[in-house]
Amino acid sequence: MQQLKRQLADAILAALDAAGADHGQTTESVYGMLEYPPSPELGELSLPCFKLSRTLRKPPQAIASELAEKINLELADASPTGGYLNFKVSPEYFTRGVIQKIIAEGENYGRSNEGEGKTIVLDYSSPNIAKPFHLGHLGTTVIGHSLRLLHEFRGYRCISINHLGDWGTSLGKQIAAYKLWGSREQVEQGGVDELVALYVRFHEEAEKDESLWERARREFALLEGGDPENTELWKWFIELSIEEYKKTYRQLGIEFDYYLGESFYSDKMAEQVELMRQKGLLKIDEGASIVDLSEYGMPPCLILKSDGTTLYPTRDIAAAVYRYNTFHFDRCIYVTSAGQSLHFAQWFKVVELMGYPWADRLVHVPYGTMSVGGMKLGTRSGNTILLKDLFKLSIDKVKEIMSEKGTELDDADKVAEDVGVGAIVFGYLANSRIKDISFDLQEALNFDGNTGPYAQYTYARTCSVLAKAKEAGYSAEAYTGEYTPNAAELELAKALSLFGEKVDDALAQYEPSIIVRYILDICASFNRFYNSCRILGAEREEEVRFRLGLVRATNITLGSALHLVCMRTPAKI
User: Fold this and answer.
1) How far is CA 86 from the centre of its chain?
2) 100-131 pLDDT, tens per residue?
3) How far apart are CA 40 and CA 495, in angstroms?
4) Which domains does the chain have, with CATH numbers?
5) Taken in order 113, 119, 124, 126, is the CA torsion positive or negative?
6) Do 45 and 5 meet the contact criterion of CB atoms below 8 Å apart?
7) What does 323-347 look like in DSSP terms, one character per residue?
8) pLDDT of 296 above 50
9) Taking the CB of residue 254, how many other CB atoms lie within 10 A of it?
């Protein structure tokens, strides 16, 4: 549809030029004005003429009528309706042009090289070490990875960084808890789960014995000072944690280019603090070093505590400088909860005030909170749903359904994992990222309706049709002769034509849910077509060949779209 919209924009611009008036429009501005009418009876595209009336000094109705007379396109008929110029596109454009284009381009359909030569750094997932993956980590992980896949789809070089939380007082608590109540044997046997149990116990005991807080601070101070025992424990905790995280990442199909925790930037912060001093940005407030941001409507950004220790902004600034100097990014994207929006706004502004010319390339992508029954998730209170446990529940449910239906597959365990994990991921990404979500386990495991399993099953259905066609000696090439589609065929072809635009919108808004909703639109259109049109059993040869082309085009588009939202595509379910 993008190609058609550009053709229409060029034709509209030519008609405006022919009118001789100073309209002040370009192809890009006209392209941006085109929209989809609320009813298909009005056509496939529409140009609102209200904005043009200001420069042309004519009523929008008159502009629509004049343009309709001047535009002559084989692909579309233009007709005015009130202040709108509506375009009824020839069905042949969709049934021949679009379907043939998809089949010819295959997995490259919807791709582009717009990002060629540009680098995107993405910071996402970033769990704290010695803590397990729980449901609250799902958002940053799958939103971040989907954004990586979307950018790669458009030709960008993407670098993914897992900014592990491996520094700070929480490590003092973990070390203290281990020394007081843990043992190497217990932790090696229980892994991260045992470390979490120790961490929770620390908070329970500290409620009764406040001296434990000071013990935790001392242990972290020793770690900062390079104490051999605490350093060894710290490295061990990191090793155990990454080993555990990679199990979940493998289930999600995610790999990171770098695991660089906060500690990596410890020796890089002093230089940035000194630069702030040289720029006259630092002020002393009750012993702490701050950057006053009142002029910009924000609270001060705390850079150093009164004891001289660093904080999150200091580390994030040092990390950003390192990333730019190392990767020369065109954008650096941070996917974190909306609760950190002020934090990012503050240190982004500090980077700008420091004089770094790339400050405007820093992007924060916030997402809403995840709660269970209205209660926010947190490790210290123990009210967590571990992602590995949730995945297992979902996978077991898929196996149960497959058993009830008598499904026999050679790779049944893998399919169950693909569908079970996909159900959770799809269910999460179906929501607008900024929306707060109250997690409902039963709803997430509902395999009926607009769910991940429904989308994957639809994809598997296209694979099944194509496999049967191949056995019958048919090719999935689109029919190239004259063919008049019925309503279901045309609806599906139109839906497939929108893929490129949906990728554009998802990238522009950093919003994977746009692709999820589009996937559901394709599935609904395909299943209406599948249930109303005989394919291999069609009466006419041309119907069989065209419909197989439509199935193949759906298979290509749906497969690419599912991949962009971290979903696997089993050919059989």
Assistant:
1) 34
2) 999 999 999 999 999 999 999 999 999 999 98
3) 12
4) 2-89 (3.30.1360.70), 119-376 (3.40.50.620), 388-564 (1.10.730.10)
5) positive
6) yes
7) HHHHH--SEEEEEEEGGGHHHHHHH
8) yes
9) 21
